[in-house]
Design brief:
10 helices, 3-stranded antiparallel sheet, binds uridine-diphosphate-N-acetylglucosamine, alpha/beta
Length: 342
């Protein structure tokens, strides 16, 4: 098949590109090479891959990009938690206006197959289990609670502690920061577009993606890259809160495999797929694994916090396995060792 891959020069995009080529597809990459991400040397695509350098908000460039393709994988986005509220317009514009422009161009060119990079942060705090009230959705964490070291969100009904649960794709969407909101809006626009055009959408809700090529030393870097950079400088990883926040660290090659499977196989309606390894870890555990691999300083638990952070994000990726036949292959300690060595 012939695919347009937006964001193909990015961290996840480059792995998706390799996977698409390995599966024998033709690929046109569309990327703005935005300077807040592409700080180093200029990226050059592999031979036989056409690169169009343009912004996804540029309607005429996008109209050219969608010509002659069977489907689009839309990975181009502004990622991360952002620096502060001043980032809001850029999340809305880069992610949501960009997606709207792309969808309009796809409809006009009769390209009706979309694979969208979405995120687990769409679920907010997800689900917790209360002994008395069963599965509940915790509310936003208050600054006062965080400042006094109460990091766990309690049951919204009785205030009792919650035990962990894995969210499915049917959990309510509850974005708690600008990036998360922009991802939810992308999904809604894509669903509206599918209804109007008869198009198909696979929205891949990625967990915390890590692996070789992770962006480093930018305000938008993920925690595994931040810790790797600190350890390489001889510093200790600075772990926020008490280090007990749970995430599912999923290797970028597993994520690329899931994304390409969805692009190849999903051919009816709108479907969300969680993409996680299935084994949640704490941020503290991850910091220790990297420190051990890099023979570096042990993590420091700082008690600091960021207001936009959710406490736990852990999901169930059964749908991706049963419907698309995906299996994550890279085990956590091997993946972290590879990241440390990369
Ligand atoms: C990450 C991704 C987001 C993706 C989501 C999916 C980044 C920047 N964010 O969000 O794009 O959609 O996963 O689940 O890649 N932390 C520390 N020390 C630090 C920095 C962070 O302890 O120096 C902690 C944070 O408090 C947080 C956790 O690490 O609890 C993860 O933070 P981060 O990597 O920024 O990612 P998410 O918010 O999980």
């Amino acid at each position: 098949m012939k695919f347009l891959l937006t964001g193909g020069a990015g961290f996840i995009g480059q792995h998706v590109l390799r996977r698409l080529l390995a599966r024998g597809h033709d690929v046109r990459v569309f990327d703005s090479l935005r300077p807040d991400v592409h700080t180093g040397a200029c990226w050059t695509p592999p031979a036989n891959v056409e690169l169009q350098i343009a912004d996804v908000r540029d309607a005429s460039a996008v109209a050219r990009a969608v010509q002659g393709v069977d489907g689009v994988l839309h990975m181009a986005a502004k990622v991360g938690l952002g620096v502060d509220v001043g980032d809001l317009p850029d999340y809305a514009s880069s992610n949501d206006v960009g997606t709207a422009v792309l969808l309009a161009a796809m409809a006009k060119a009769n390209v009706l197959r979309l694979t969208l990079a979405s995120s687990m942060v769409a679920y907010g705090e997800g689900i917790g289990l209360c002994r008395e009230h069963g599965a509940v959705t915790p509310g936003p964490r208050m600054e006062k609670a965080l400042a006094s070291g109460q990091f766990e969100p309690p049951c919204p009904h009785c205030g009792q502690p919650l035990s962990p649960a894995l969210v499915s794709e049917n959990a309510p969407l509850d974005p708690r920061n600008a990036y998360a909101s922009s991802k939810v809006v992308q999904e809604f626009y894509a669903a509206n577009w599918a209804r109007l055009t008869g198009g198909t959408v696979a929205a891949l809700r990625y967990h915390n993606v890590y692996g070789p090529g992770m962006p480093r030393d930018t305000p938008y870097a993920g925690v595994a890259a931040i810790f790797t950079s600190a350890l390489r400088r001889g510093d200790a990883p600075m772990v926020f809160e008490d280090g007990g926040q749970r995430r599912d660290f999923v290797h970028v090659r597993d994520v690329a495999a899931a994304t390409v499977l969805a692009a190849e196989k999903h051919d009816s309606g709108v479907r969300a797929f969680n993409v996680g390894s299935g084994t949640p870890r704490t941020v503290g555990e991850m910091a220790t694994a990297l420190a051990v691999s890099l023979h570096g300083r042990l993590p420091i638990i700082t008690g600091r916090y960021r207001l936009g952070d959710v406490r736990h994000i852990t999901a169930n990726s059964t749908r991706l396995k049963t419907e698309l036949g995906w299996r994550p292959e890279i085990e956590f300690s091997a993946g972290m060792a590879e990241l440390a060595a990369s």
